[in-house]
Amino acid sequence: MSPHAEEEDATNAYQSLSETAGIDDPRWAFGSGFEDVEAEIEAPLPAGVDAADLAEYCLMLGDDALVCAQRIAEWVSNAPELEEEVALANTALDLLGQARVLLSRAGHVEGAGRDEDALAYLRSEAQYRNVALAERGDDLDFGVAIARLLVFTTWRLALMSRLLDSRDPVVAAVAAKAVKELTYHREHAARWAVRLGDGTDESHRRMQAGLEAVWPFVEELFRTTDVERRLVAVGVAVDPADTRAEVDAVLDQVLAAATLTRPDRAPMGLLGGRGGRQGVHTEALGHVLATMQSLARAHPGATW
């Protein structure tokens, strides 16, 4: 269940989708979790922070969550059991909520008149700033899906825990909410990894194969961009390299409990020194965006 479940009316499955919590724009009912969204997004730029750098950083964090949420949502109607389908849907919605606020903040800070919808639906692959792990498909193989979720949530939780003290109030607010959500997401993925890894010979084989499939994408998580370096210097961002020790320790603990072996795979290479943070992606992102953006592009400007 979602960590927010106790706040909802258990007899009304659609309450969280229909209530606006006092917000004028009812669309904010879908996953943002902020009581005063506009005030959060329009918070003043911290002194000494470059607007373009902050917008780019919000896109990085927001795109990671948005693209991964889209990938996880592919399991709706495909999960091995109904309870797991609900759990994965809730995980995707939590990440989508993070993405919405971060993309809205990016649009506000850059001052180009682009809102969350424009940034989500009208950008090309080269304009996305997510890490490749988020876009990596799983061909509906549950072992690959759990391996991706375990690595992604372990890394993102370590990152968000350090962003609680960000000088940007929106980044800090997103981090505060995300830490609670990601703690649940990581635990959920870890439990499945142990259940599969320490289960039957077949489940062990497939969970190990899932790790092997996602491991080439791990190294990129700890690469630091020039934008991140500049924002670290002014107290807004976190150097992703600083999360490596924590991520490794958590993964080692889970893999040991699951009787799984840390893969020995070469990391995915860069193209001219550029990767997902610079807009160079795998072909998988094109498939994600084709699905995610098709309706908005077919009916530009439509509202419902």
UniProtKB/TrEMBL annotation:
Its domain of life?
Answer: Bacteria
**Keywords, comma-separated and alphabetical:** Oxidoreductase
Indicate whether Cytoplasm appears among the record's keywords: no
Q: Name one GO molecular function term.
A: phenylacetyl-CoA 1,2-epoxidase activity
Q: What is its EC number?
A: 1.14.13.149
A Pfam family found in this protein is PaaA_PaaC
What top-tier enzyme class does this entry carry?
Answer: oxidoreductase
NCBIfam families named among the record's database cross-references: PA_CoA_Oxy3
| Name of this protein | 1,2-phenylacetyl-CoA epoxidase subunit PaaC
